[in-house]
Model the fold of this input.
Amino acid sequence: QVQLVESGGGLVQAGGSLRLSCAASGSIFGITTMGWYRQAPGKQREGVAVITTGGSTNYVDSVKGRFTISRDNAKNTVSLQMNSLKPEDTAVYYCNVRRTYSGAYQTYWGQGTQVTVSS
Done:
């Protein structure tokens, strides 16, 4: 099992910045992709940004140029720097980690952290 602990959410005005962090612990061997998802009220959860072990990244179009994902493989952490925040970025943000173990793929989720952007 992998445990994920998120931090860094909060309330910010439009145009402001926040940094989310997620620390993985437990059975961390075999972790591959790490990423962030978000879910706004009444909407489906969507992928925001992902990063591979080698550092390749991918972002949803709505955050390109504003958000930056990074990871520290030695510390098993993943972060999301969010700049130029907009009210539509308001959501619960979830850390996501994927792991391969004994030929099987496993997915783990953090508990979620609220990000609220006021206009």
Notes: The first strand starts at residue 2 and ends at 7.
